[in-house]
Amino acid sequence: MSSERFDCHYCKDSLLGKKYIMKEDTQYCTKCYENLFANCCEGCSSPIGCNNKDLSYKDRHWHELCFKCAKCSRSLVEKAFAAKDELLMCTECYANDYSSKCSTCKKTIMPGSRKMEYKGNSWHETCFLCHRCQQPIGTKSFIPKDTGYFCVVCFEKQFAYQCCACKKAITTGGVTYQDKPWHRECFLCISCRKQLSGQRFTSRENYPYCLDCFSNLYAKKCVGCTKPITSLAGAKYISFEERQWHSECFTCMQCSVSLVGRGFLTQRDNILCTDCGREK
């Protein structure tokens, strides 16, 4: 009784006692398998046989001995590498040819390293330091000034004005009064504490006042309506014997005709037009 045959699926040679390779439940002799299925090496252009390791990268294949840096020829097996224009290079060769240099230490920034870039310059992350405290800025906010870079805290300490009211840094806007800086929200009327930024105000003894407070505290009072008379708001007034009237309040006590620009008579504390005065 003859034994069952066990042949190569492609060339039909017997595989009994020989090395063979299974692919999708089908057996092949090593020669047929390599001719039919072996990948071509990118380095030497020869098939990658069954007895060799097949190293692959992005659908490209190499013999283990052919997988090396295109520039210095060092093996890339189990080492970091980078690709440039279809060529594989060790990280050192790639960095020397293509990587940027750190603006602080002048050394190459290796591929894969954390780095900082700003306006065409590059730094190792640990080399991008605040010009004042010399601590790495990392991913925190920073402010460029002259030729240096500052973390926000150091910039405020070194360059920002300090509000003379709260003593904290003024980073945006602000108000200058008597050559001193103030936050807008800190520049207040000394009397009512209303914010004066963007409002008309005046001062007395170096203290700022809103117009209402200044008028109530210091302006002369109208004899007619008893309200303050202030020229700050552009009001016109009449003055007579240390008494003052708003222009619109300077009227005859009896007939209420305006006395502005007209003659008048006095009767005790009252003022009268000449017609009403004669009747008396």
Automatic annotation (TrEMBL):
Q: Where is the LIM zinc-binding domain?
A: 39-99, 100-161, 220-280
Q: Which GO terms describe its molecular function?
A: transcription coregulator activity; zinc ion binding
Keywords attached to this entry: LIM domain, Metal-binding, Nucleus, Repeat, Zinc, Zinc-finger
Under the cellular component aspect of Gene Ontology, which terms does the record hold? nucleus; Z disc
Reading the lineage from the top rank, the first entry is Eukaryota
Q: Where in the cell is it found?
A: Nucleus
Looking up SUPFAM superfamilies in the UniProt record yields: Glucocorticoid receptor-like (DNA-binding domain)
Q: Which Pfam families match?
A: LIM (PF00412), LIM_FHL2-3_N (PF25076)
Stated name of the protein:
Four and a half LIM domains 5
